[in-house]
């Protein structure tokens, strides 16, 4: 973790745990309580929402029992403090069943959250999720290596 003190790291981990819990419990209210009013959110499919009101409208439509047996485990992978009150947080998001077993064939997510500390509380200011496409990453790296003369 880059330049993050233990207290902030604990609070950031707690916030990411709340993201996981609120989504897995399909609690739009709890999920939305983690966002600043001016938050920006981009889904794994590239859909952008530019305010908490827009995020709310979407979240209330998708965080429902209709998701079925589709849950996620969230783990903080890296934190970079951009300033004392702003953190860039990389998260590993693994699709799981309710019993915790992996969902075969589902891609992991790799969210980046920009968190802002206000009155001692970390809030989501911006979020961008991306589906991890391992085969595409490997192909891209092979092309880079080929251009650099590596085999």
Task: Please report the first level of CATH classification, the CATH class.
Answer: Alpha Beta
Beta-strand segment tally: 6
Overall pLDDT confidence: 92
CATH topology: Nuclear Transport Factor 2, Chain: A
Helix content: 25-40%
Low-confidence stretches: none
> Structural class, from secondary structure content?
alpha+beta
Helical element count? 4
Strand content: 25-35%
Profile the largest sheet: 6 strands, mixed
Q: Kindly provide the radius of gyration, computed on alpha-carbon positions and rounded to a whole number of angstroms.
A: 17 Å
N-to-C SSE series? HHEEHEEEEH
Structural commentary:
The radius of gyration is 17 Å and the shape is globular. Helix content is 32%, strand content 32%. The mean pLDDT is 92. By secondary structure, the protein is of the alpha+beta class. β5 (112-118) and β6 form a beta hairpin. Strands 2-1-6-5-4-3 form a six-stranded mixed sheet. The protein has one domain (6-147): Nuclear Transport Factor 2, Chain: A.
